Design the sequence.
């Protein structure tokens, strides 16, 4: 795996069995050996408070270093009230500070949004993309990934129920790898 592209996956849901986390695990399962996707935890990040920058909490430092080391970031988000969850926004804020030292800058990114509803968390996907524009992250445009019906994607063993969803996820990861190679060398 040392030659594989290192991708940090930031999952905007803390629930262990969340649909979003399951989808990222599905993406990991269809990835080629040339790309290594690892879920990076965000649940233990203290809320961002600039006053703490004089002595940043250890979880902030570990998170920032992990994102700094990766070549690209896969963001996966559910939709809360037509936007991204607070825990995801907090992770973005923690990584973007202190001002001028963002760990996100120039990292190729992809966004996948997940919902049991039919719209596939469309609103959250686009709110997240607004943040990534400001963070100066070249974000993959196609294929778009608004995954609806997330409660019916996997069986009890975590396997894709429908082959066409597995195929889509495989194409998504292949496209993301090409995007990374284009922007990250």
Sequence:
């Amino acid at each position: 795996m040392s030659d594989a592209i290192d991708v940090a996956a930031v999952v905007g849901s803390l629930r262990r069995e969340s649909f979003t986390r399951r989808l990222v695990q599905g993406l990991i399962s269809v990835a080629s050996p040339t790309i290594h996707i690892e879920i990076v935890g965000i649940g233990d990040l203290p809320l961002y408070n600039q006053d703490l920058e004089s002595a940043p909490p250890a979880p902030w430092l570990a998170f920032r270093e992990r994102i700094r080391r990766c070549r690209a970031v896969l963001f996966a988000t559910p939709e809360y009230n037509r936007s991204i969850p607070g825990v995801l926004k907090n992770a973005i804020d923690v990584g973007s500070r202190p001002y001028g030292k963002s760990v996100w800058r120039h990292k190729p990114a992809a966004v996948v949004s997940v919902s049991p509803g039919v719209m596939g968390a469309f609103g959250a996907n686009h709110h997240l993309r607004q943040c990534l524009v400001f963070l100066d992250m070249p974000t993959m445009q196609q294929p778009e990934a608004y995954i609806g019906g997330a409660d019916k994607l996997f069986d009890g063993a975590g396997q894709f129920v429908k082959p066409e969803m597995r195929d889509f996820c495989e194409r998504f990861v292949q496209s993301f790898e090409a995007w990374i190679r284009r922007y990250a060398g």
Summary: The first strand starts at residue 5 and ends at 11. The CA atoms of residues 46 and 59 lie 8 Å apart. The longest helix spans residues 163-184. Helices lie at 19-30, 58-69, 86-96, 122-134, 163-184.
